[in-house]
Amino acid sequence: MSMTTAGPTVTGGPSLPQERRLVTAIPGPKSQELIERKNAAVSASVGTMMPVYAVAAGGGVIVDVDGNSLIDLGSGIAVTNVGNADPHVAQAVIEQVQRFTHTCFMVTPYDGYVELAEKLNAITPGDHAKRTALFNSGAEAVENAIKIARYYTGKSAVVAFDHGYHGRTNLTMALTAKAMPYKSGFGPFAPDVYRAPMSYPFRDGLSGDEAAARAIHTMEKQIGADRLAAIIIEPIQGEGGFIVPAKGFLPALQKWANENGVVFIADEVQTGFARTGQMFASEDEGIVPDMMTLAKGIAGGLPLAAVVGRQEIMDAPHVGGLGGTYGGNPIATAAALGAMKAYDEGNLLERAHEIGAILQSELTAMKSRDPRVGDVRGRGAMMAIELIDADGKPDAALTQRVAKACHAAGVIVLTCGTDGNVFRLLPPLSITDELLREGLSVIADALAAN
């Protein structure tokens, strides 16, 4: 880490110096001023995790208004997979915004929407005929996927899984497991939503087949396949704790769903777009979902989401049944097409594997040194450690102390988990090995000091 009195860098992108650089305490005086302005102008219900204000980002760093250069191990919650201000994305956005910013695809359509739909249909799992609809956020994609599944099947019940996270709208809050901060006080929630037990190898010790049998028993006995429109599941759970189900769990669920006329929806909002070392996490076990919800890494930081699914399912609702004023906005679709070029030309699947190997090695070393690291899990550039106390119970307080120490040292890290005791790492795929290792060293020091 270098120490300098240089002012903030205002030009972002990969050309930013790739270094951790602290010139003030975190937060610095300019960030503190903005914190005060935020408190006076923004709803107190909109929280912020890192007490700094960004002016530039790129590669594996974010620069704040005080000139501090911070190592980014969060990617804006798995959004900037291709890096911040990737040249493919930035150029596509510039060119599009100079042509037009909006017409509404439902009123005057444009080719970018169609081209992106073609691309998504081609790269998502399965060689069956597919159709795509574009939206603005992951929650909106999930909401529409459920709408489509209900229309197609003529059934209303939906099953989500313990620890799952699917969004903050009314329906997606019903699907989401964690109460605080996502659901508490915001009910009543959308009806006919049920929950089945998730495969959680660190806690339940079950094989994939055993965990699937348990979940299927719940669905058959407590809901009934004859009432069930869809099951929705994250192939690796995100906010719930980066829970990787035991091998065989997902294929068994998909097989049961297919045999019982239940639409199988993979929520790949966080796991999609090279994050796990596959373009989509479903590919790891050869899962071919009936529908997929996509967002986050799709457009290099611009708001965009998609539902991709089997033609007969996606075409089932009446004309006009799907849409939205901003869905598939031309600037966002241009950014997504730029991001697709970055994935193709940047060899980012291989890069995710390389990052995963470093994360696995360093986190496993932490576990060998500290019994409070109960589990290391994840795939590719989506890895986590679960922290526990001496009795093996979730230790949320330790997790928060370590995160706070990392933030003070100039490393952006995120926590998650239903019990708040999981430390998740989502570095941009553009990060250098040196910067990644430095960030992990800060984490290790923070853990040892707490």
Task: Reconstruct the topology from this structure.
Layout: H1 29-41, E1 54-58, E2 61-64, E3 69-72, H2 75-78, H3 87-99, H4 111-123, E4 130-135, H5 138-153, E5 157-161, H6 170-175, E6 193-196, H7 201-204, H8 208-223, E7 228-233, H9 249-259, E8 263-267, E9 291-294, E10 305-310, H10 311-314, H11 330-345, H12 348-369, E11 373-379, E12 382-387, H13 396-408, E13 411-412, E14 414-416, E15 422-425, H14 433-449
Parallel strand pairs: 3-13, 5-6, 5-7, 7-8, 8-9
Antiparallel strand pairs: 1-2, 2-3, 4-10, 9-10, 11-12, 12-15, 14-15
Q: Quick summary of this structure?
A:
The chain has 450 residues and is α/β, with parallel strands linked by helices. The chain is built from 14 helices and 15 strands.
If you had to describe this structure to a student in words, what would you say it looks like?
This protein is α/β, with parallel strands linked by helices. The chain has two domains: 29-85 and 347-449, Aspartate Aminotransferase, domain 1, CATH 3.90.1150.10; 88-345, Type I PLP-dependent aspartate aminotransferase-like (Major domain) (Aspartate Aminotransferase, domain 2). Helices cover 37% and strands 16% of the residues. It has helices spanning 29-41, 75-78, 87-99, 111-123, 138-153, 170-175, 201-204, 208-223, 249-259, 311-314, 330-345, 348-369, 396-408, 433-449, and strands at residues 54-58, 61-64, 69-72, 130-135, 157-161, 193-196, 228-233, 263-267, 291-294, 305-310, 373-379, 382-387, 411-412, 414-416, 422-425. It has a seven-stranded mixed β-sheet with strand order 4-10-9-8-7-5-6, sandwiched between helices. It has a four-stranded mixed β-sheet with strand order 1-2-3-13. Strands 11-12-15-14 form a four-stranded antiparallel β-sheet, covered by helices on one side. The two termini are 22 Å apart. Mean pLDDT is 96; it is low at 2-10. This is (S)-3-amino-2-methylpropionate transaminase. InterPro entries: 4NH2But_aminotransferase_bac, Aminotrans_3, Aminotrans_3_PPA_site, Class-III_PLP-dep_AT, PyrdxlP-dep_Trfase, PyrdxlP-dep_Trfase_major, PyrdxlP-dep_Trfase_small. GO terms for molecular function: (S)-3-amino-2-methylpropionate transaminase activity; 4-aminobutyrate:2-oxoglutarate transaminase activity; identical protein binding; pyridoxal phosphate binding. It catalyses: 4-aminobutanoate + 2-oxoglutarate = succinate semialdehyde + L-glutamate; (S)-3-amino-2-methylpropanoate + 2-oxoglutarate = 2-methyl-3-oxopropanoate + L-glutamate.
